[in-house]
Write the C-alpha cells for this entry.
Amino acid sequence: MPHYNYLIIGGGMTADAAIRGIREIDTGGTIGLIGAEAHPPYNRPPLSKGLWKGKPIERIWRKNVERNVALHLGRIARTLDLAAKRIDDDQGTAYTFDKLLLATGGTPRRFPFGGDDIIYFRTLDDYQRLRALSEEKQRFAVIGGGFIGSEIAAALAMNGKEVVMAFPEEGIGARLFPPDLSLFLNDYYRQQGVEVLPGQQVTDLQKSDNQLVLTLRDGKTTNERAISVDAAVAGIGIVPNIELAKGAGLRVENGIVVNGLLQAGTPDVYASGDVANFYNPALDTRLRVEHEDNANTMGKHAGRNMAGETVPYHHLPFFYSDLFELGYEAVGETDSRLETVADWSEPNRKGVVYYLRDGRVRGVLLWNVWERVDLARELIAEPGPIDPRSLKGRL
C-alpha cells in the first residue's frame, strides 16, 4: 500500500500546478498522482487552438516527472476513507496519504444517442481521434455554439474542412456575448465558410453507410430536418466529477465546496480546478471556473497551502479564446443576461464590453484588446456605483 505525503487525484493542469506549488515549499516530500487518462499532465488549450495551427504536439507536455512524482495513470479513484486517509482505485490498489488534493475535473455532457460516434471533445485522445478523422474525412458537424464548439468549428474550417455548426441558441457564444456580438459571429463564421445553424436542437444521430445522419429540430417551429456528415464532434459543457467527494461525505454543491484556503471541509483534504466551488471576494459570490488560468493559479495555490502556507485564494480568473482572426480575453462574471455597455473602437472587431449589475462592473470582455486583464480586475473590485457613461474609454 503506497503512502504519500501528498496524494493528488486527477491528472490535468490543476494537478501539475499543485505539484509545482508543493515543490516550491517542500522539495523532499513524497507526491503521488492518480490520473484517469493514460497520459501524464498536459496543457489542454492547445487541443482546440494551437495544435490546429501547426504547433508541435510535444509542447503540450508539462514534464512533472522532473519533480519526483509517482504517476499512477489509467486509474480511477473509487473510494475515499477520510478517517483512514485512504484512497482505493478501480484496479484494487489502496493508497494512504497525509494531505490529499481532489483535482478531479469534469466529464463532458453526453446525448442519450449516438454513442461513441460523437466525439465529446476534451482530452488528448479526443484531439488525436478528431485529427485522424480530419486527415481522411471532409464534412464535419460541430454540435454546440459555446467555448469548445466555436473553437473546434474554427479549427476545422481553417484546416480546409466543411463544417456544419448547430446549436440551440440564437447566436454563437450567446450565453457569453451580448446579442449583437453573438449574431455578428454567426455571419462572421459564415464568411469563413462555416454553415451556421442557430436555434437547432440535435435530437438524434444514426449511421447510414459511411455517413452520420443528424436530426435537427427547429426551436421555434419544431420542424425537423436531417443533415449528413462524415463525423460529429460536440462541446456541450461538462459535469464536475464530485462522486469521490460526495461518497466520502464532503460538501458538494455545483462542485466540491472549499473554504478560502481551498480545504474541502477537513484540514488535510483540498480541492482545486474545474471541480472546486470557491468564494471570490471581488464578486462577493461563489464560483466554479473551468478555464486554464484558474486551473494553473488555483492548483499552485492549493499545492503551496498543502505544503504549509495558509494564504486565502482571492484570485479572479480570466479566460481567452481564438476565433479565426478574432480573439478575446474575459474576466469576472461575463453573462449575457446582465446589463452590458459596449465601447467599440471598431464595431464587433475591437473594443471592450462591460457587464454590470447593481451599479457595479461584474465582468469585462476584452475583444481584440490585450494586456488589460489586471486593469479589468481592478475595475471589478471597485465598490461603485458606476455610471455606465463613465466606462467609455476606461480600458
